[in-house]
Amino acid sequence: MHISFLIHNAYGIGGTIRTTYNLARTLGEQHDVEIVSVFRHRDRPIFDPGPNVRLAHLVDIRKNSPGYEGDDPAYTRPAKIFPATEGRYQQYSELTDRRIGEHLRRLRADVVVGTRPGLNVHIAREARRGPVRVGQEHLTLSTHSPGLARTLRGCYPRLDAVTTVTEADAKDYRGRMRLPGVRIESVPNSVPAPGLEPADGTGKWVVAAGRLAPVKRYDLLIQAFAKVSEARPDWRLRIYGGGEQRAKLRALIDKLGLYNHVFLMGPANPLDPEWAKGSIAAVTSSLESFGMTIVEAMRCGLPVVATDCPHGPAEIIDNGVDGRLVPSGDTNAIAGALLDLINNDELRQQMGQAALKDSARFDPSRVAGRYETLFTDLRARGGLRGSLHRARGSLVGGALATTEAMRRAHAA
Fold it and tell me: Which residue among 87, 153, 175, 205 is least packed, with the fewest CB closer than 10 Å?
């Protein structure tokens, strides 16, 4: 199969980019795969697509590049096809509309996959007939504005499938959206096995990672760790990532006197070596569309203490077996779950081993296999529909010819 992914910016960093590379790289072992990036803002991508995946871009915004297009007047005019209610709308333009449309109309692929709502709208409206059209949802329907949901309800019936990263979100799509004939499947994000030895559970570090953004609720984690450090001052917390809340979190750490216990480490890539230095991972988000960091930590042998926020964590963590789920927003529950694992070496190591084993279901080979089955089924369904359409046309044509012959005979 020729499989083409359409992504916002394949040269950046983030969960959607990471999991798209993981999936494309694995599918590329058996199929003809390309990643088409709407934007290119740096010379080399952060992630490696592998030797079998082609990487292309539609709009070059590298200021020192001979192909720079940021001065094109069309780049300053607003987009009309990319939905205005989509979160990335301000980055799209008349130029991106034109380039995406040209790409989709000339694309000769068996499957085209969009990776965010605005790009899925482009695919639904502009992809030529022939390729199977798949729209991936890496966020959640519940977080979309009513305006965007209405737009998707109007465009998504032209897709062959919509995939979500959790079954909870798939249920939302099935229950709240009218998408007759569109297959809605939940397929999780993939995380490859780290190329290093897993954590042994002896390091006295709790590790967290992700954007320093309000939704991640690192303020709760820091407040909970104040309680942890009172009981176990020999343990420390490392938080990896950058973002808008760094100064605020730094101030909170200083206010609570945790400057020797909680460390803001900044971004790290790859993260696997940092996970492996720890013994417990912590995720305290108020909302997760999936929970990539949960799986990443588990694949390194760490049990994860996570808030039971909507959608993601409960579909990844087997509570009490390979991690702990605690109520969202409850600092006492977070601290208690961390201390349970800190104070019980045997339980911590047992859960870490279970996490390592259970997280294998997110291996790219397994996730790619599910997508391969989906693509094959959709292609077969398309072929069957085409055959039925042709057969129906032949039957109708034959009936009309017979009727015309009988009319002529009667007239004679």
Answer: 175
- Residue 390 Cα distances to 98, 108, 160, 385, 397, angstroms: 33, 22, 19, 9, 10
> Which residues on neighbouring strands pair with residue 35, listed in sequence order?
5, 55
How many CA atoms are closer than 13 Å to the CA of 33, on its beta-carbon side?
A: 22
| The one-letter amino acid at 102 | E
The residue count for the chain:
412
Alpha helices in 343-363 (DSSP H): 345-358
Count CA atoms closer than 13 A to 398's CA, side-chain side.
Answer: 6
- Which residues, including other chains, have CB under 8 Å from residue 182's CB and lie 6 or more apart? 156, 157, 159, 160, 161, 162
Measured CA angle at 192 (ends 211, 29), to 5 deg:
125
Q: Please, which residues bridge with residue 206 across strands?
A: 237, 280
Cβ-based burial of 242 (10 A; exposed 0-12, middle 13-18, buried ≥19)? middle
Model pLDDT for residues 66-78, shown as the tens digit of each residue: 999 999 999 999 9
Q: Cα angle at 49 between 160 and 274, to 5 degrees?
A: 110
Dihedral sign (CA 88, 93, 99, 102): positive
